[in-house]
Write a structure and sequence with these properties.
Layout: H1 2-10, H2 17-20, H3 25-157, H4 163-177
């Protein structure tokens, strides 16, 4: 600050209302020129760098804001799609459950029908076996009856007759018994 004080010391004493305030015109003009040069230099070299940095930051903020808005919209769309898919999945699950119940009921009725058919077959086989056993028992009883009659006839007649005579006697005895 040597220069302003140098001019201040060489300046002549001014009179008037400005001088009464203690303002020196030469020093004021020199300070205005220095301030103008400072403002010019700042505008030419310093402020553009700051303005570019501020513009970049502002652009980044705007991009971030737009990205956030887009992300929010995409999240909302995704949420809606997820809800739609969940609803669809629930409907499909209900349909699957209904189908499974119907199939289970069908399988159950088929199993009941098959078991009834198997039971009927078993009963029919058992009835056939019983009928065969009854026929066999009747034949056995018939044969035993014939033998008993032959024995009784032999005892009554007290003599043994040949087979054809036995058969004729047995036939007669059976006819009389009926």
């Amino acid at each position: 600050m040597l220069v302003p004080t140098y001019f201040a010391s060489t300046a002549t004493e001014a009179t008037g209302p400005i001088a009464a305030l203690g303002i020196d015109w030469t020093l004021l003009v020199f300070q205005l020129i220095a301030f103008s040069l400072l403002v010019f230099a700042l505008n030419k070299w310093v402020y553009p760098i700051f303005i570019r940095a501020i513009d970049k930051r502002e652009a980044m903020i705007e991009e971030s804001t737009k990205a956030a808005v887009n992300a929010e919209k995409n999240a909302a769309k995704s949420q809606e799609e997820t809800e739609k898919l969940l609803k669809q999945a629930r409907v499909e699950a209900k349909e699957i459950v209904v189908t499974a119940k119907e199939q289970a009921a069908g399988m159950l009725s088929d199993a009941e029908l098959k078991s009834k058919q198997q039971a009927e077959r078993a009963i029919a086989n058992a009835e056939d076996a019983i009928a065969k056993e009854v026929i066999a028992a009747k034949k056995a009883l018939h044969n035993e009856t014939i033998e008993l009659i032959a024995l009784a006839t032999e005892k009554v007649v007290s003599q043994k007759v040949n087979a054809s005579a036995d058969a004729a006697l047995i036939k007669r005895a059976l006819e009389e018994a009926k």
